[in-house]
Amino acid sequence: MQHRTVGDVMTHQVATVRRDTSFKAVAELLAERDVSAVPVVDDADRVLGVVSEGDLLRKESGQPDPDGHTPALWMSPGNRKRSHAENAAGLMSRTVFTARPEWSVVEAARMMDRHHVKRLPVVDETDRLVGIVSRSDLLRVFLRNDRAIRGEIIAEVLQRVMMIEPATVSVEVKDGVVTMRGQLERKSMIPIVERLCRSVDGVVALHAQLSFAFDDTHQDLEPPIVRGVMQPQRFHG
């Protein structure tokens, strides 16, 4: 079974800025490339931080409003300082979570969810920027058509991995939801088949109606005790 990786779905041509890129140049780049954030990199393309639309908006929220009111007092000293920044170095968020090209989309999704971020710069083994992956990129796996999902379950999960005759299990896929019916040889095979099917790219949910011919989950797995007869030792003097 082959799963799509971050390298398969990421954007390879990444818009980047340097530390000295001006506020206006960052804003123009975001608008021109129709992106909501850009990594800040050094001369070796290592990621130093990320500047997002939210970082730019902080400058707007830190300005006096048309009625002459002062900026909101709720801004932290750090954010207030960043609201006066003139370049990417002052604007950027320095805490950056990154991904690797060989990660599965599941690993990347967990990283985004854990740290509440919308995108991850993708770096190679030398920490050099090679791409960027967003939430929408990860969701592409769910655009996979039902026929492809069904074909992989039958050919890869049932036949190649589990060595199950396709005729013994029916597989239906509608809008990514998989329904399986049939009988397997052993009860212990059911959770394995279910886990493998859920891991197929594009599967939204699995409804398994599987029975078994033999319950092998309650067998005594301890090895039998072999009792031997100890022969008496003889001493000759």
What would your notes on this structure say?
There is one protein chain. With about 240 residues, the protein is an alpha+beta fold. The chain has two domains: about 5-140, Roll (CBS-domain); about 145-215, Histidine-containing Protein, Chain: A, CATH 3.30.1340.30. Helices cover about 30% and strands about 20% of the residues. The strands form three sheets. Strands 5-6-7 form a three-stranded mixed beta sheet, covered by helices on one side. Strands 1-2 form a two-stranded antiparallel ribbon. The mean pLDDT is about 85.
Key traits:
237 residues; alpha+beta; CBS-domain; Histidine-containing Protein, Chain: A; 2 domains; three-stranded mixed β-sheet; two-stranded antiparallel sheet; 32% helix
Query: How many distinct beta strands?
Result: 7
* Total domain modules: 2
Distance between the termini: 71 Å
Beta-strand residue percentage? 15-25%
Topology pattern, helix = H, strand = E: HHEEHHHHEEHHEEHE
Mean pLDDT over all positions:
87
* CATH architectural type of the largest domain: Roll
Based on secondary structure, the structural category is alpha+beta
Radius of gyration: 29 Å
Tally of contiguous helical segments: 9
User: What would the CATH topology of the largest domain be?
Assistant: CBS-domain
What gross morphology would you assign? elongated
Helix content: 25-40%
How is the secondary structure organized here?
Elements lengths: L5 H4 L13 H11 L3 E5 L5 E6 H9 L15 H6 L5 H4 L13 H11 L3 E5 L5 E6 H4 L7 H16 L7 E6 L2 E10 L2 H10 L6 E10 L23
Parallel strand pairs: 6-7
Antiparallel strand pairs: 1-2, 3-4, 5-6
